Amino acid sequence: MNLRFALPNKLFESIQGRLGIVMGESPAMVEVVRAYGDGVVVEGWGSADLLRTLEALSYEDVVRMKAASDLAARTLNAEQEGRVFLALIGPPATIPATD
Fold it and tell me: Is the pLDDT of residue 1 over 80?
């Protein structure tokens, strides 16, 4: 179950590096890549599946995916995500003074 919902740092590092992403069918990561269009998902887990996916990519596909990662990086970063996180948990609690 942990692997199903994993969002490894390497995914976000690749986005911040403005790279095109080639990845397996990990559902949580697939959701991110498909939402931003910054990569392709390999159907299957074998080396032949990866080879087929890579051979199907054109130069234009790679340029498009890298441009999409550039746009995704403007949203998927610590500054932006930190604001979302803080908004979800609310204002900081105050600790009453003790006498």
Answer: no
